[in-house]
Amino acid sequence: MIYRFVSALGVLIVVASLACSSDSALGPRCGFGSPCAQGPISSLQFIPGKDSLLVGDRAQIVVRALDSTGTPVTNVSYQYASSNTRVATVDASGIVTALDTGVSILTLSAGDKQAHDSLFVFSATLLTMDGGAEATCALQQLGRSLCWGLNSVGQLGFTQDTVCFGEFPQDTLACSVFPQHVDQSTGFASMSVGDSLTCAVTTDSGAECWGANQIGQIGNGTISSNATPIPSRVFGAASFTSVTVGGRHACGLSGAGIAYCWGDDSFGQLGDSRLVNSTTPIPVVTSAQTPMLFASLSAGYMHTCGLTAAGAAFCWGDNSRGQLGTGGGSTALPAPVAGGLTFTVLSAGLDTSRSASSQLAGALRSSFTCGLSGGAAYCWGAGIGAASTPTLVGGGLSFTQLSAGGAHACGLTQDGTAYCWGYDGDDQLGNGPGPSSSVTPVAVGGGLRFTNIAAGRRHTCGTATDGLAYCWGSDVYGALGNTYQAAFRGLPQPVGQPVLVVPPSASRTRMSSVRALLRQ
Q: Within a 13 Å sphere around the CA of 502, how many CA atoms are in the beta-carbon half?
């Protein structure tokens, strides 16, 4: 028997039950078509048990009745009940609706037999977000992920036929103006969005990437000029604790602290001294060609930076704009950032030009890096008024989080107040409509407090303490997720709810994702 339904989060759930079905010509059939020999009901089963859902989900209970030989029994009338209707309700057809966080015991009855299943309901709040070039992605509980914005090369992780219109007549590109679920086959622990590529650390410590792959930046050993909207496993046996995506390269950090990078190495951003692109992860090394150990990594458009366990900052790759902070030239090996500061956070920015082709043609207008040292923000590079070595950001503020975007950066103070500084030509600073660029931090308007913040190329997003996600800045390609596009918003706008439309046929990956969800 096949059950099909659309969840409140836009997931098409298709579950196959091996219960018997009735066929007027052949009689009852079981499993893959073998005849059924039926007896009295001996037991009832939920398939599978211990379900976990998010608030707002609707899910079909799949059950079966067995006789004493373990043979499925057909034509059974089932009754369902929920022990806690505040948490979840279940209707006569076995469809569960998750209403609030908590636990409910689902009871299945048929005749004098019963079975019980624990249902755990978690908040659907977006936990963390990351912004890239005209796109945003977010994580929920249960390892689920959502993305929205520009989807020209599949960087959102699903196939989407919505069209956004950009600054020029020829800019008619695939996009999604509200959040949709990534076609993931396993849960995600963290995500990173870059220029035209997105990667995630899976809950089993692997890494998966999707989007552009013209020079192997997906890391699966292949090169393709086609969009890759389905997450693909990064090649290799390394387990990852984090992943970071830049322009056309990505890097991951192993549990042992070894940094691996893959993709574009035109400027040495892979950190292995060769200046040779790689379709698979290769370790970042020292001048002695031994792997260098890091505690965290951050990839910029054409450079990469990392922090050691002691807080020392190193950067490598392109330094044409001073983004390495070394005071020297470009380098294909990690070089110490000048000034002798120790940092707790580093964030390498993207750039302000709109496309990879324009950037490679020399249209790069900004590239910079920022870090937190003792809560004070320091930045270096071009695009936000910074020098080629770490320079203290004015304003006397102390930050707990920091995120670098295209030509702006944002941070959170201890009480969750958001501040941004740099270029504001697209309202990405969030302090009101109209350009108001500032070299010192300005408070984001709206009176909200945030738990995390993410600066994209021309937009910014954050999760507020009210449990909602907000974005501001450029919405030209739907990066604000508020159902609009080709617009700009100078104050935080609530991110819309996931779309309730799915493709007519579920993909293999979506099917696997649903099965994995129901096993939680």
A: 20
* CA angle (143, 149, 155) in 5-degree steps: 65
Residue 36: partners with Cβ closer than 8 Å, 6 or more residues away = 20, 27, 28, 29, 30, 71, 72, 73, 74
**Strand ranges across the sheet with 259-263:** 240-245, 249-254, 259-263, 278-283
Task: Give Cβ neighbours of residue 288 (< 8 Å, ≥ 6 apart).
Answer: none
Q: What is the DSSP letter of 293?
A: B
Reported as a single tens digit per residue, the pLDDT across 369-415 is 999 999 999 999 987 766 899 999 999 999 999 999 999 999 999 99
176: which residues sit within 8 A by CB, 6+ positions away? 147, 148, 149, 151, 156, 158, 160, 162, 478, 499
b/e burial code for range 131-148 (CB count within 10 A of at least 16 → b): bbbbbbbbbbbbbbbbbb
Structure tokens at 424: 């504001």
- CA distance linking residue 139 with residue 386, whole number of Å: 32
Beta bridge partners of residue 110, listed in sequence order = 113
